[in-house]
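Replying to the earlier thread about multi-chain prediction with a worked example.

Input:
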Amino acid sequence: MEWEPVIGLEIHVQLLTRSKIFSGASTAYGAPPNTQACAIDLGMPGTLPVLNEAAVRLAVKFGLAVEAEIARRSVFARKNYFYPDLPKGYQISQYELPVVGKGHLTIHLDGREKRIGITRAHLEEDAGKSLHEDFHGLTGIDLNRAGTPLLEIVSEPDLRSPEEAVAYMKKLHQLVVWLGICDGNMQEGSFRCDANVSVRPLGERAFGTRTEIKNVNSFRFVERAIQFEIERQIRVLESGGTVVQETRLYDADRDETRPMRTKEEAFDYRYFPDPDLLPLVISEDFIEEVRRELPELPEARYRRFIEQYGLKPYDAEVLTATRALSDYFEAVVRQAACDPKLCANWVMVELSGALNRAGLEIDQSPVDADRLAGLLRRIADGTISGKIAKQVFELMWDSGKDADTLIEEKGLKQITDAGAIEKIIDEIIAANPKQVAQYRAGKEKLFGFFVGQVMKATQGKANPQQVNALLKEKLQGGG
Amino acid sequence: MHTKTLAELAQGLKRREFSSRELTQHFLDRIRRHDGTLNAFITVTPERALADADAADVALDRGEGGPLTGIPLAQKDIFCTDGIRTTCGSRMLDNFPPPYDATVVARLAQAGTVLLGKLNMDEFAMGSSNETSYYGPVRNPWNTDCVPGGSSGGSAAAVAAGLTPAATGTDTGGSIRQPAAFCGITGLKPTYGRVSRWGMIAFASSLDQGGPMARSAEDCAMLLQAMAGFDPKDSTSVDRPVPDYGAALDRDLRGIRIGLPEEYFADLDPAMAQVLEAAMAEYRRLGVEFKAVSLPNIGLSVPAYYVIAPSECSSNLARYDGVRYGYRCRDPRDLEDLYLRTRAEGFGAEVKRRILIGTYALSAGYYDAYYLKAQKIRRLIADDFRRAFQEVDALLGPTTPTPAFRLGEKTGDPIAMYLSDIYTIAVNLAGLPGMSVPAGFIDGRPVGMQLIGDYFAEDRLLNIAHRYQRETDWHRRLPPEFA
Amino acid sequence: MALTLEQVKQIAYLARIGIGDEDAARYTHDLSSILDFVAQMDAVDTTDIEPMAHPLDLPQRLRPDEVTEENQREKFLAIAPAVENGLYLVPKVIE
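Result:
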């Protein structure tokens, strides 16, 4: 039988606020344990939550970016359960009335586009961390993370393969970083994924029983965990068994999922509206204010790059991977005022390669857009060849000087004086009679040899087109 | 000095007839002498009190300070006091010195008051007799075989017996008004949101409200003036100016219309009815008009309350898990054992009963039938009051069905106990201000009349109570054993 | 409404309150009579009534995104039952 996987993702995005969602404690990552857990975060008796404006603003920003309905009134509820990293014995989370309603996101996969539904996105507080290193058989609790604002983004079960799931996750990651609402740091847990997975016979409309894979924190692991889970469920079904609805953990070392020890029946979250918080009311003015802050979105920029600059979809996608990269590219195009494809190539190949090798991000690039544009201008106006340009680029990278200065200093200016090139060609023809004879006898492969000789004699500075034309003429001319 | 009102004490201090230290020492002496009988205090803070008093005297000597500077007070042990243990009447917090002050505590300290100590109360404010306290019951100064009421039983008893000139209380279903009535003092539960809940240990967050407990309406006005006001740390605190309560006290009552809810008088005990008749006669002489009104859904206030309050409490009290503060069971075998035993040993029977009821009412499959149903009834009750206040300026009725009952009389029957708050609970569901004012005695035990105001009409309530107290002396009587 | 002993034990477990068999029997009685009492609510038809979660008909106030809390770890840890290296200690958590 052929099986069709059905996948939905719940992604927890840590919002980039200075302070926590309900307290004035810092959200900075990596502080010594419990130094950023204030009385509110610790659930001390008599303490009360007050909602952080920035958390609301960032949630609305996301909602607008996925063209979702923004709830004019939403409600914070309490999700009650006992866990040592949950200080109050409940998590404050939006339940029945989330701030962001139905929206969508378009993913690109193998040249296809697919619109993935977003069911909702709601604000909630993060829990602390349990540290299981051995404290004489005890567990240590660090509550620095408790109260960090999260936006939980729930997709529709629209994903049909692990690859689609990862494409969606990457697209969402790109968007939240692009919007500046999340730092996207997956190692630090700023972007975490739970996957709901089920399978059904191809053509069947009803969903199969799903399992939830908790807390998978890299793109690669999400793909592998889902893949494993799909295969496991198919195995169970094909051997006549039934899939049990349960929460599973992905073990990266063994590349498998296994059920969590805590039993699902033990939970009855007893959601009810948090009486310490009033309904969150969002005005039209607030929404419009946030809308004005919205940057051009990655999907729009991608389409514009194709249209405006004639880029290939693949190139447009690479160049819009991050907002910083696409901004950089556009700055180069604007200032170089030359063929955008040349600019695209240089940003994607030379610059990105160099950044990769140096382990730098685009905003840390030693060669800024201004200077790269200066270099490309010199290619475009024929001052230097592409090959020399690579040399100049390396010098720029190391020296911090601009292209014109370096071309001048190193005398790298292209030789375009036809007389000078002719003179060099004449000397080379004179010095290599044997090769000339062979060429003229039909060994045309030798043409490259002559080009090489000219370039060697000019240290690569001769204009390659001119060299080609003049060489051809001289070698054929039999002169 | 313990027979004087706050206004009289303030005047004495201002004129330097006595110092704050002398005044404070006088009350500390009285606490030492009488609290063995009453058990109104959980913690007495003499060093802190005298230090506060000395600081107040410095200010007073310079002619500085406000109306409360140098006045000794005691706090219900539900208000967090920085570095001073705050038990909430529970074993769970027997060893809990909060690292912060409640806003009410900070404001009263800011106003120059002196902290005498922390007052006994029902455990986590769950009780109507002060018998659920881990620290033992409080006795009623008018009859020590009787309860002082609850949950602010320590506050009411201490004020009535002259162990403190005034105290703070909290009221979730009647916990200021009912003990005020039982002990013959004046107590005000403000409009929900008028007084900050920051640092006031939560029982049921949508119902809890702190307020003053003192001899007179005038004293309550002085205290409320300092306690009330917007607090950015409490999302449910209302950002609205605080009127001058003192200035409103003497306003003329002619033309004021007071509603008499039929439902409050229907099955009223004849002795209680007589007390209220006498009070109404007094008001008529002051030019008040009475009008019968109806609150048709009020009969459901106790059932709705006993779903809503336990639901909220079951969640509010989940934080007591033995991990970060408070009681922890000995040698837990595993995490489960830590939770189960810490909470079994740390909480008393009534608190557990309410946590269980609330857990059940919120659980899957029962939420709609209990919690949601109760919230709908809450709306009906609030609407009843809204309609009534379109016709009248205030409502009058009994605070309690009977005077104080005997210790142990209702401990075996939770529902009988719950019904002792039958007249006070609806006010909390609606979030309205309510007062209990001493109005007479039945069998030597004081009883109170309850005044209920519209939202934020504390000034009107205090005015109505004060004008009555100008004509009567019920509020000035002292229990003979503690005179 | 009468609860069963099993239900009461399940509720107590949800609330993480350890109760012995004797307690469970007493709570079964108490809770059942309280539930009977609150069942009076059923007398009123509340079909189209908007539930009232809160006495105030006000919106949530928003706090500016500022760090206002200082590190007070030592003060907080000093009142905790079991700590080590700045962490709260609990019996081993198994996921």
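The interface with chain A takes residues 13-14, 16, 53-54, 56, 58-69, 71-73, 76-77, 82, 84-95 of chain C (CB under 8 Å).

Feel free to reuse this layout for your own posts.
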